[in-house]
Design goal:
Structural class: alpha+beta
Order of helices and strands: HEEEEHEEHH
Number of strands: 6
């Protein structure tokens, strides 16, 4: 999987946008002003960090060696996925969807309604 593919899927989420607040080497994907994905290339490996329910986050880390606590993020609420051939595109897309939904739910009712109307 390529960075472009991950970015394209993240940007397919309703009202998402890319930003580069940490420099040109980290793509940050937001809904409104809240991050739900960070994509980078670290040690020649693609990484995507995603928000995650804390109980699910811990379970995923125990079950999959390529899912680690969020790199430079709140480790309770963020996971980093080291993308390689052992992780399926479907699983990553499911985790991106989960991250987007968590962040969407944290938006104000007004923001949620505006997004849903678009």
């Amino acid at each position: 999987m390529y960075i472009y593919t991950l970015k394209k899927y993240c940007l397919s989420q309703k009202c998402s946008q890319e930003d580069y607040p940490f420099g040109s080497d980290v793509i940050v994907i937001k809904v409104c002003s809240k991050m739900f994905a960070l994509i980078s290339n670290r040690d020649n490996k693609i990484n995507i960090s995603l928000k995650c329910d804390p109980f699910l986050a811990d379970s995923l880390r125990q079950d999959y060696k390529y899912i680690i606590p969020g790199y430079h993020l709140n480790k309770k609420h963020w996971n980093t996925i080291i993308v390689d051939d052992s992780v399926s595109k479907e699983q990553i897309y499911c985790l991106i969807d989960h991250s987007y939904k968590l962040v969407f739910k944290s938006l104000s009712k007004k923001q949620q309604e505006q997004i849903l109307l678009k």
